[in-house]
Design goal:
Order of helices and strands: EEEE
Helix content: under 10%
Radius of gyration: 13 Å
Number of helices: 0
Number of domains: 1
Length: 69
Protein backbone atom coordinates (compact mmCIF):
# COMPACT_ATOMS: atom_id res chain seq x y z
CA UNK A 1 0.00 0.00 0.00
CA UNK A 2 1.10 3.54 -0.63
CA UNK A 3 1.67 5.96 2.24
CA UNK A 4 -1.46 8.03 1.53
CA UNK A 5 -4.96 6.64 0.94
CA UNK A 6 -6.53 7.29 -2.45
CA UNK A 7 -10.00 7.90 -1.00
CA UNK A 8 -11.83 8.47 2.28
CA UNK A 9 -14.97 6.58 3.28
CA UNK A 10 -17.96 8.40 4.75
CA UNK A 11 -21.29 7.23 6.14
CA UNK A 12 -23.97 9.63 4.94
CA UNK A 13 -26.91 10.38 7.19
CA UNK A 14 -30.35 10.82 5.69
CA UNK A 15 -31.49 14.46 5.64
CA UNK A 16 -34.27 15.18 8.14
CA UNK A 17 -35.98 17.83 6.00
CA UNK A 18 -36.64 18.25 2.30
CA UNK A 19 -33.82 20.17 0.59
CA UNK A 20 -31.21 19.50 3.30
CA UNK A 21 -27.99 17.66 2.55
CA UNK A 22 -26.95 14.57 4.43
CA UNK A 23 -24.18 14.78 7.02
CA UNK A 24 -20.93 13.07 5.98
CA UNK A 25 -19.05 11.31 8.83
CA UNK A 26 -15.63 9.91 7.95
CA UNK A 27 -15.40 6.26 8.94
CA UNK A 28 -12.30 5.02 7.14
CA UNK A 29 -9.73 5.31 4.39
CA UNK A 30 -9.15 3.41 1.14
CA UNK A 31 -6.03 2.23 -0.67
CA UNK A 32 -5.96 0.62 -4.13
CA UNK A 33 -4.40 -2.84 -4.37
CA UNK A 34 -0.90 -2.80 -5.83
CA UNK A 35 -2.04 -5.00 -8.75
CA UNK A 36 -4.92 -2.65 -9.54
CA UNK A 37 -7.73 -5.19 -9.12
CA UNK A 38 -9.46 -3.90 -5.99
CA UNK A 39 -9.25 -1.78 -2.86
CA UNK A 40 -8.66 -2.11 0.88
CA UNK A 41 -11.12 -0.25 3.11
CA UNK A 42 -9.73 0.33 6.60
CA UNK A 43 -12.46 1.39 9.05
CA UNK A 44 -11.35 3.60 11.93
CA UNK A 45 -11.32 1.95 15.37
CA UNK A 46 -14.42 1.93 17.60
CA UNK A 47 -16.82 2.90 14.81
CA UNK A 48 -20.03 1.03 14.06
CA UNK A 49 -20.79 1.40 10.37
CA UNK A 50 -24.35 1.20 9.14
CA UNK A 51 -26.12 2.66 6.11
CA UNK A 52 -24.79 4.18 2.92
CA UNK A 53 -21.02 4.51 2.52
CA UNK A 54 -19.63 7.04 0.05
CA UNK A 55 -15.98 6.94 -1.08
CA UNK A 56 -14.42 10.20 -2.24
CA UNK A 57 -10.97 11.47 -3.08
CA UNK A 58 -9.54 13.37 -0.08
CA UNK A 59 -9.58 17.16 -0.15
CA UNK A 60 -6.14 18.70 0.15
CA UNK A 61 -7.13 21.10 2.93
CA UNK A 62 -8.97 18.52 5.06
CA UNK A 63 -12.42 20.05 4.53
CA UNK A 64 -15.59 17.97 4.73
CA UNK A 65 -17.00 16.91 1.35
CA UNK A 66 -19.66 19.07 -0.26
CA UNK A 67 -21.64 16.63 -2.35
CA UNK A 68 -25.18 16.96 -3.62
CA UNK A 69 -27.42 14.08 -2.57
Amino acid sequence: MSKSPSHRAYVVSTPKREGEKGFFREVGVIWPHSKGNGFDLVVHENIAVQGRIVCLEPKKNGEQPNVEE
